Structures are given as C-alpha cells and as structure tokens.
Sequence to fold (186 residues):
Amino acid sequence: MALEDIIKKIEVEAEEKVKEIEAETKKAISHIEEKGVRELDRKKKEILAEAEKQKKSIIEKARFDFKGETKDKITERKLKVIDDVYLKVFGELSNLKKEDYLKLLDKFWSKISDKSGLEIFIADKRENETSEFFQGKGVQIAGTVNSQGGFIAKTSKLEVDNTFESIINNFKKEVDMEVVKILFNS
Fold:
C-alpha cells in the first residue's frame, strides 16, 4: 500500500471519527435546556475545531514518520484525540454557570418518575448550588459524593447516578463501542 493511500485512509478514518463524535455529542446535549444547549453547542464547535486541528497535526506528522509507525501507535493517537474531546466536554460541564447548572439539574430531576422515598447524594464540588436546587422538593439530602456536578438518587431498590462523571462515562462507553466497530471493521 503506497504512503499516500495510507495517509488517505487515515484522513478518511479520522473524518469518520470526528463525524461520529459530533453526532454523539449532539445526542448527549439535546437533554439540556435551550439556553444551555446554545452555549454547549458553541463550545462543542470550538472543541471539534480543536479536534480537527489535532487530527491535521497527527496526519502531518504521520507523513514524516510513517515508516516507523505501527498500526497500534496510529490507533493510540486516534483514541487520544477522542479522549481529549471527552475531557473538554467534561470541563465545559464542570464550569457551567449557576443558571445553566440549575437548569441541567432540573432536566435530570424531571426524568425520575417515582420520587417517593428517595435519598439524594449531592456533588461535593457544587454542594451549595445543588442543595439550593433540592430545597422545597420534599426529599432528604443524605450526603455528598465526590463529583464535579449532579447528584445520585437512591432508594432501597434503585439508584440513579446523574453525576457528571457517570453521565460522561456512560456516554463514552456507548461511543467507544461504535468507534471500535469503525476502527476494527474497516
């Protein structure tokens, strides 16, 4: 396979991954209130633009170093770009303005249908804002959890983990399965 063919394949795979990340990111943020969505969409475009720059940088470096690169190293680089996107999205969630954060909590809260008997464990990094959200909701705050944002709602039979870490982790697992299919079935 010629060097240019390999580089072209890398470019195509990277484009597919960027498109996949963009589609999954849109799906994940669709649950946020309209104002928060607009803000996250703007930030998402910045993140994707940065990912695109990183992709071009990786491809450019591959042109010069390719003979010594193995497929494992190329795959590792691609996965690093994807991981960087997750870190940036997590950072943006962690730094939401109070108003947007409270709207996001309300969205999470509204998805819990049976609220009877819930114990709430709130994020320790945003304890004041999260406590404020739950005032007047008729639930017991049972404690805090090590988290940048969100809450965990528990009963004896059910646990709903709406911490930022859990949400990003669950989303990442879904996307990673799709990425693996793309990487290894091509």
